[in-house]
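User: quick one, sequence for these C-alpha cells?
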C-alpha cells in the first residue's frame, strides 16, 4: 500500500521524515569517482592513505547523490522533490561499508504569492552513517504543489 502524497497544506514546521538506508561499497565509491570526481583519495586505497582522509573516502558528490536517492525513494511529497537551491556540508568522510540514512525536517512552509498552485518548503536534512555520525548536512528549498480546489472539496 502506498502512502498518500503530501501537498503544501499538509506540511508543517517540525515534521520529520526518515529514509531507508544504503551501504556504500568500495567498488561504488571508486566507480562514482572515476566518472565524476577522479581524485586519488576517491580512487586508490593505497594512495588515499597519504591523503587528508587517511584512507579511501567517498566523494561528497557521491554522498549527495546517495542522499537524493534515499530521499526520493522514501518521499511522500506530491509532484516529486523539485529543488530550488541548497547548501551542503560534509563534516566527516564517508567510508566503504558505511550505511547511510537521511533524516529530513520541515523548517519553513511558504505559499507562493505569484503562483497559487504551489509554494516553497525549506528543509534541513542530515545524512547519518551507521554510528549516527553526521556525514552530510543540507539545507534546501523545494517547490511543492498545493491542492487544487477539486482536491480540497469535502
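Assistant:
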Amino acid at each position: 500500500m502506498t502512502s498518500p502524497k503530501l501537498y503544501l497544506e499538509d506540511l508543517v514546521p517540525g515534521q520529520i521524515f526518515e529514509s531507508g538506508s544504503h551501504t556504500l561499497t568500495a567498488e561504488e565509491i571508486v566507480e562514482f569517482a572515476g566518472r565524476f570526481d577522479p581524485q586519488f583519495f576517491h580512487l586508490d586505497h593505497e594512495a588515499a592513505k597519504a591523503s587528508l582522509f587517511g584512507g579511501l573516502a567517498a566523494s561528497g558528490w557521491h554522498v549527495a547523490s546517495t542522499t537524493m536517492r534515499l530521499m526520493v525513494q522514501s518521499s511522500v511529497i506530491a509532484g516529486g522533490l523539485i529543488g530550488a537551491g541548497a547548501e551542503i556540508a560534509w563534516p566527516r568522510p564517508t567510508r566503504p561499508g558505511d550505511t547511510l540514512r537521511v533524516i529530513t525536517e520541515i523548517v519553513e512552509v511558504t505559499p507562493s504569492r505569484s503562483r497559487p498552485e504551489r509554494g516553497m518548503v525549506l528543509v534541513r536534512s542530515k545524512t547519518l552513517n551507521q554510528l549516527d555520525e553526521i556525514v552530510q548536512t543540507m539545507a534546501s528549498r523545494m517547490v511543492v504543489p498545493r491542492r487544487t480546489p477539486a482536491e480540497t472539496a469535502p
